[in-house]
């Protein structure tokens, strides 16, 4: 097992305090949005096996079977198939969707054939992989996830009392579900920018007022939309966001976000895991490129409950967050003082993250070398470790530990 040294990404929407508080480090005054744990080439973690720090992707490339296990290599190829993160949102992220595997493969091939550079601002597909993801709240966490039922969205928008929004309300109340959602999103994204900016301004004022009105229905949602609008004044994504379910996760609760599901993170600290991809199509709340035709091809126009997940108790104290995906498997351990040691399953690559207390890891073997058997490593809050396939590891201590791995 190896302690990880991780990169923190300073995206503009990041909190200035949440990740420093988790790590026990002083704030820099700059946004600290994401801490990446894994082997993504954009910011791989580093480990030190006695010869100085080495990027984890380089270590894996040198011997994929030993690091990942033969079953994982056969199933996913010679690379770590997930990216694990701590995410700290201090301002809204863009409303976005991710493609499924077939859409990603075809979109990537098409943009490659057209010669669009990977770093071009109008590039949609950075790779040929899909990007299902899961977020687990470490603090109260606000987000948007999936479409509201059209009738509910109509009532919420109508209550704003903005005449320019009346045509959208009428469509939402008159058309079948998928057609209503498709027509309204298309109309919002295709509206004349200056007129839409004025509509958003009026909607923001109304949402701010309704959020502060005692007994107002959807007060928390109006407050979230108003906050997003203050971060992105005049952005058409504010109206698009009103078509989505607002959800507040309590610590330990999670959301799974599959292909085609529009979503946005608004505020809070959480752990996030995803397939190892960077494919994003945006709907709004962003200055970045929005490819409306491609977006409309990818979005699933299905309304429903956002589907808040809670961990399911399993053997040996493991609590699993269920997801219909094999590229990642996320669980947690709540370790009490004096409790029996917990033994982690072996055979797959693992990344462990301590989010509270202190957790002690001990290698039971077989390790990479006989001398490593019985090795111990203590993780404090915010610290993480990588465990290659084949190593059996025992947990003791007091705290919360998240375990990221794969299913084979």
Q: SS-based structural class? A: alpha+beta
Distance between the termini: 21 Å
The largest sheet is: 9 strands, antiparallel
Count of discrete alpha- or pi-helical segments spanning 4 or more residues: 12
Report the radius of gyration as a whole number of Å: 22 Å
Number of DSSP-assigned strands: 21
Shape: globular
How would you sum up this structure, described in words?
This protein is an alpha+beta fold and 408 residues long. Helices cover 28% and strands 29% of the residues. The chain is built from twelve helices and 21 strands. Strands 1, 14, 15, 16, 17, 18, 19, 20 and 21 form a nine-stranded antiparallel sheet that branches. Strands 2, 3, 6, 8, 9, 10, 11 and 12 form an eight-stranded antiparallel sheet that branches. Strands 4-5 form a two-stranded antiparallel sheet. Helix 9 (193-211) packs across helix 10. The longest helix is centred in the middle third of the chain and has 19 residues, at 193-211. The mean pLDDT is 94.
């Amino acid at each position: 097992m190896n302690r990880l040294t991780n990169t923190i990404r300073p995206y503009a929407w990041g909190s200035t305090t949440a990740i420093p508080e988790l790590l026990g480090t002083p704030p820099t005054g700059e946004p600290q949005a994401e801490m990446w744990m894994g082997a993504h080439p954009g910011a791989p973690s580093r480990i030190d096996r006695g010869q100085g720090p080495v990027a984890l992707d380089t270590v894996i490339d040198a011997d994929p079977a030993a690091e990942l296990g033969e079953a994982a290599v056969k199933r996913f190829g010679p690379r770590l198939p997930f990216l694990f993160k701590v995410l700290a949102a201090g301002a809204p992220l863009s409303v976005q969707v991710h493609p499924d595997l077939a859409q990603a493969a075809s979109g990537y091939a098409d943009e490659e054939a057209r010669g669009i550079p990977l770093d071009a601002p109008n590039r949609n597909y950075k790779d040929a992989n899909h990007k299902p993801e899961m977020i687990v709240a470490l603090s109260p966490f606000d987000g948007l996830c999936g479409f509201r039922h059209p009738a509910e969205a109509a009532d919420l928008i109508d209550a704003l009392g903005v005449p320019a929004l009346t045509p959208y309300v009428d469509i939402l109340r008159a058309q079948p579900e998928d057609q209503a959602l498709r027509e309204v999103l298309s109309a919002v994204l295709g509206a004349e920018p200056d007129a839409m900016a004025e509509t958003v301004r009026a909607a923001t004022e109304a949402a701010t007022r309704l959020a502060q009105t005692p007994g107002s229905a959807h007060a928390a949602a109006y407050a979230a939309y108003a906050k997003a609008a203050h971060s992105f004044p005049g952005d058409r994504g504010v109206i698009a966001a009103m078509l989505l379910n607002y959800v507040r996760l309590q610590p330990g609760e999670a959301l799974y976000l599959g292909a085609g599901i529009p979503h946005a993170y608004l505020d809070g600290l959480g752990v996030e895991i995803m397939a190892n991809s960077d494919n994003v199509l945006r709907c709004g709340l962003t200055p970045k490129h929005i490819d409306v035709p491609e977006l409309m091809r990818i979005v699933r126009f299905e309304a429903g409950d956002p589907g808040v997940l809670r961990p399911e108790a399993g053997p040996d104290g493991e609590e699993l967050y269920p997801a219909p995906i094999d590229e990642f498997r996320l669980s947690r351990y709540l370790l009490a003082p004096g409790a029996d040691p917990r033994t982690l399953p072996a055979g797959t690559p693992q990344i462990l993250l301590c989010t509270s207390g202190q957790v002690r890891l001990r290698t039971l073997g077989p390790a990479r070398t006989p001398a490593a058997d019985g090795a111990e490593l203590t993780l404090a809050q915010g610290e993480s470790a990588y465990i290659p396939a084949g190593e059996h590891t025992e947990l003791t201590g007091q705290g919360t530990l998240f375990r990221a791995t794969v299913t084979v």
